[in-house]
Amino acid sequence: MPESTVPAPAAPLDPIDRQIIAALQVRPRASWSTIAQVLGVPDRSVARRGNELIESGRAAVVGVTGPSRTALAFIRTPPNSTRSVLAGIAGRADCVFAYALTGDWQIVAEHRVDDSELAALVLDELPTVAGVARMSLARVTRVYRSVREWIPDVLTADQRSALGGPPGQRPRVVPESPVAATVVSVEPDITDADRALLRLLAEDGRTPAAQLAARTRLSENTVRRRLGWLETHHYSRLRVVVEPAALGFPSEAIVRVSAPPRLAGELIAALLTHSEVRYLAALGSDADLLVHLACRNNEHLHDLVSRSPWCALAHTIEVDHLLVAEKRSGRLRRADRRGRGLY
User: Fold this and answer.
1) What angle do CA 227, 235, 153 make, to 5 degrees?
2) Phi and psi dihedrals of 110, rounded to 5?
3) How far is it, in rounded angstroms, from Cα 163 to Cα 143?
4) Residue 62 backbone class (left: φ over 0; alpha: ψ -120 to 50; beta: rest)
5) 192-234 sits in which CATH class?
6) φ/ψ (deg, to 5) at 137
7) How far is CA 255 from CA 17, 28, 151, 322, in A?
8) How far apart are CA 133 and CA 94, in angstroms?
């Protein structure tokens, strides 16, 4: 994993590169030839561009391993110490993302943590990170949209459908069960060989089946069959790590939304119709939500949190602009000489 440095704003990609990354977001292990056919671009061009995007670090396809239950830490820091605290939080192995924000809480970070380890994280570990002045932690009790489910408005509906994904950003049906559908255990149903495959996918989610077979001493047919099973049963949590700004969405914000319980389900369904919603989670109940938005510009962001129909369903809306993403999807960010975000 690359070392973290002071990141610079991500430079936008050209339209074809954006489409290639958007195709990977729909189907992370799609072949370059499949993507080329869907985009109507020559195979060699897509293969060259796609490999360059991944080899350069502009984008990464990775799997997430470890506990699937998460908690969000909101942290306050003394003046002039936010960058160092952010780096300390992001450097933890259990940290999924770490962002510096405007507003009262200078940092928000997501941590993978099982119930048995939650007390130690809250009472013993995070408070000892140098520079943490005050901390509040909220357990994520349901994820309505994860980053791996984010479908930005880059491809057409027909292109998304041809890749095997939904034609648009479909609202997920709000379940009545209190257990989040996205929370799975990685222990009971999988074999040691499955765990080995998941570890390799965490390093590079596009590792060819032949290489996976060689490194796990399985046959290619077995690898393909197990990958399909792991994907179907939500154990293979592949996602594309990329700066939203590179796709044309440079204005990001973390939004805390509260709602009367009787309107919470309707509010969640309304939020899920927006492609700008990268992440939507309930913190303890559906009446307390955290939303990560990625918009084309600040005017777009302003209108989304001011004039969208869902705003009328909310009790309070608190917007903090995202200043620095030190870590996304478990990957530390750095910048190249051109200021491009790398993973």
Assistant:
1) 90
2) -105, 135
3) 24
4) beta
5) mainly alpha
6) -125, 135
7) 29, 28, 19, 10
8) 21
Two tokens at 58?
């502009």
Q: What are the tokens at 95?
A: 């940290």
Structure tokens at 136: 């509040």
Q: Please report the sign of the dihedral spanned by the C-alpha atoms of residue 322, residue 324, residue 326, residue 331.
A: positive
**pTM of the entire structure?**
0.85
70/235: higher pLDDT? 70
Label the pairing between strands 95-101 and 107-112: antiparallel
The two three-digit tokens of residue 214, written as one number: 């060689």
Check if the beta carbon of residue 329 is closer than 8 Å to that of residue 110: no
Residue of 47, 66, 63 whose CA lies nearest to 55 = 47
For residue 4, give both structure tokens.
């973290």
Task: Give the N- to C-terminal CA distance of the chain in Å, as an integer.
Answer: 8
Closest C-alpha among 28, 116, 58 to residue 246 = 58
Q: Which CATH architecture has domain 70-141?
A: 2-Layer Sandwich (3.30)
Residue 73 φ then ψ, to 5°: -105, 125
Q: What is the dihedral of CA 256, 270, 303, 15, to 10 degrees?
A: 100
Question: Dihedrals φ, ψ of 54, to 5°?
Answer: -80, -45
Summarised one tens digit per residue, pLDDT across range 51-109 is 999 999 899 998 877 667 899 999 999 989 999 999 999 999 999 999 999 999 999 99
- Report which DSSP code applies to 181: T
Domain residue extents for the chain: 70-141, 192-234
Tokens of 173: 């049906």
